[in-house]
Structure formats: C-alpha cells, structure tokens
What does this fold into?
Amino acid sequence: MKAIVCKSYGPPEVLEFQEIEKPTPKDNEVLVKIKSTTVHIGDTKVRRFEPGLGPIKDFFFKPIMRIILGFNGPRKKILGMELAGDIEAVGKDVTKFKIGEPVFASTEFRFGTYAQYCCVPEDGILAIKPTNMSYEEAAPVSNGGITALVHLRKANIQKGQKVLI
It folds into this structure.
C-alpha cells in the first residue's frame, strides 16, 4: 500500500511517499480502506516536534514528548489521526461492524491515517458514516468536532446566542 512516512522531525520535506506493507487487523480491529483524511494540527506539531504550549512549557514538555513520541523521529512513522473510508476486513472478534460499511474514525495518538489502509479498534472512536455526508466531510468530524465542542463549552455559549463559524 502507499503511505506518507515521517522518518524524522522537521518541516514538511521530511515526509516521504513510500510503498509499505498493508496492515492486518487484530481480532478486535477493523481494516479501513481510507478515502479521506485530514492534516490535523496535532500531526503537524508531532512532525515539527513543537508542542506549541509556549516557550517555558515547551522547554519542560519536550523531554517528555521525546519519551512518548520517539527520540530522533516519531515512533509511529505514519502520522494522521482522522479518516473516513470503507471497512475492508474485520477481526474475528468484531461484532459491531461489517465489511463494506462506510465509517469515520479517529486514531488519536496511534496515528496511521496518512495511508491507503489503517486498522482501528472496534471499540475505538469509530462510527458508521452518515449517508448524507461525503467522506471528505466525515473525516474531520471525530477530532475536529470534539475539539470544536470543547472550545464552545469553554466559551459558555447560551441558548439564543449566535456563533460565527
């Protein structure tokens, strides 16, 4: 399968288009043939190795970030946190999803969506794609929608107020 691989931290030029082995779903996972993904702010922060919390916080957070994400480059070489696509295979223990179903999902810090295929746990952030949404519209809903909801709640929007989007 084709994938965008990140071997080291740095600017967008560290990303390489490569042919790699197609993943096989574990017993509790589905294999999704990705039709749409996003470039999430979290992906770019990982690729650049810039937490973006402010100079002082970044100074203290970067050593922890290296332990979690990888020392010389991302441990997970295929970045990407959001996807929409069709289920191509299911693990033997999967009961909620079937081959051929259109889905959207977030892999969070498991990454892996800058590729043609990605495995997602059945009990992860994974849902059937609404029929009235395109794959491009559905892909950002999992993380983008949750992020927007968090900020809207912080803003304490009240009934009757308007929000410019």
